[in-house]
Amino acid sequence: MKILSTLFLSILFFSKVQATETSVEDMMSVNLVLLDIAKERIDNLKPKLPCKDGVQVEQPKPAEKECDCKFNGLIGKIESQEFSINSGNDNFFHGTINLYAPSWRKYDGNDLGRTFNSGLDYSLLGSEGRFKLNLDSTGFGKYTTVNGTSRDSAGDHYLVFRELDTLSVKYDKFLKKDEEKKLFGTVEFKLENETDDGHISRDIQNAWHHAFTYDNGKHPRYYHYVQENEDQTTVKMLAGGGIDIEKTLAGITCTESLTGKAGLSYNNKLDYAYSARSETKLKASAIPYLVVSLWGEISRDFRGTAKEGGVEISFPMKIRKVTFKPYIGVEKHMTPLDKSYGTPSGNPYEIYNTIGMRVNW
User: What predicted TM-score, i.e. pTM, was given to this entire model?
Assistant: First the structure.
């Protein structure tokens, strides 16, 4: 209000000045006086800082509040995130080695049994827990006949390709932790769908076969896909606990993780399910770009008991704040689906090869 009154007075003054034809020097003097008055009024509107011994003291800025959202309350302060893409095949390096080393072809698979998978993972690590989301599509193949013949008119094999698509959501809550150990409770939700008419792993493998050639233009075999079985969907809910232990000895860091879960699965009827998993990671300080992992798991659901395990070698490379981890691995899967689709080929539990990339930030 004081500023407005000052401006109002100045307007009246200038109107009077014009009427009396005051000199330019007088008008400039009046302007300076009015500017001083306006500055004084504006300074009076500013909040006064506290003084100490006649000197104004700057107040500290309020601390920024951390996110208090519900998700942050589950995992605490976010420490890292990781995204990964992975794929597996019964052929070493997905058969591309055939392009340069045909003699290795005898070690490759035959597109039967567990033949191909692709997957995505996202994990979030916090001070109080961790969250993991997994999407995977795995294909199992076996030959079949139609009207007593094993091939169609184009010469392509009749093949049943059973696609298992899985969505998994897992949450671990840290119950007790220190520099070497983390004790946690865990819950997991799984949704699985089996189909003979899949369009993820089956279509990716089919496109891969069409994209590559060897032996002067020869393509890998093509298939005529046949539907023999009904689709089925399974829901699983598991809960349990585990422990992570990390120790360093003689420059080698060993991380051991043990997890056990039990719960229920539903597939037209209710059944029990469980799993127990062990994983060991080894990293030498002298070779920071190499990590060796070994894992094993035993599980049970409505299909029966499964035993699986593997070895993985990753090559972490840090660029600024982002770590890239390309990896390769070999696995062995002794599951009911592997047995059902691999037995007709004479080798139900063949070696399975994996490749992938993890990005951590």
Answer: 0.77
